[in-house]
Amino acid sequence: MSTEKNQDTRAKGDKKRPNKHWKLIRRLLTVAFIILIPTLLYIQTKDLKWDELVGALEGYSATTLVYCVAAAIASFITYSAFDLLGRQYTGHSLATFKVMVTTFVCYIFTINLSAFVGGIALRYRLYSRYGLSTATITRILSFSLITNWGGYLLLAGSIFSLGLLDLPKSWKIGDTGLQVLGGVMLLVGLGYLAACAFSKRRSWTVRDHEIELPPIQLALLQMVLGGLNWALMGLVIYLLMPEEAFYPAVLGILLISSVAGVITHIPGGLGVLETVFITLLQHEFSKSEILAALIGYRVIYYLMPLGVALIIYLVLEQRARNRPDSHASAEPEHQSS
Q: The pTM is what?
């Protein structure tokens, strides 16, 4: 008996070691990126003409800024609709306004701080106060992630495979490699839609969590909303770029930089976005023009909404303290019964 216990203990220990090693590797990579990104950004901007940057920022017209704010608001509304699809997917009865406000606050905290803070921790905190169970919130979160990255796959796959983004010659992946990557991304996105449309098996259990394929109509809405949100984000930057800018190229670079930001785990992709854009567009536009557009983008899409989201969050917290037990369960009947 003691021998069997020792073997079990060793087996558990062997399973934990790879996890510990992987966590250590991830931390080391994160630290390396935190050092690398500012270094690359410094190299790219050390010869920047600051008077040109100030001139570019001052040159934006009120009309341009209004269009940018409108595009940003449209993006926030689109993203907030992700969890409306999640409501249809899970069957809970939470009011539309509450769902969209919660999703907006979580999204703004996610892009400014991190996915763990906004997308995960804050979502569980706010939704649980409205009476949703942990299982339902997990399904909403998973569905939102698929909506976001499913739309990303189809949009980025289309841009890359069609050759709409012209990479500098110094990039080793090259235009052909990017087209191949785009084709693979399209296949993955279309594969998800095919599974939703034709798969006979509709659910799986992974780590005690049930994963269920949505109907094809809902999956198509996921792809449309996910892609539209990315397209609107790219539109904000495009409107701030010089007139000669090519929208699909600007959007494609945003899509590349977003993945780079996720990999580096740097909140808001700070420095990553700027480094990628300057690297890929400096042969077409001055660094001052590129950086001015990205500064404007961060103010309009990140900082201004963060102030609004923070106020809304504080109001929600205050209401929750004043009425801690007033929220009726919004769970589907088959779950609450």
A: 0.84
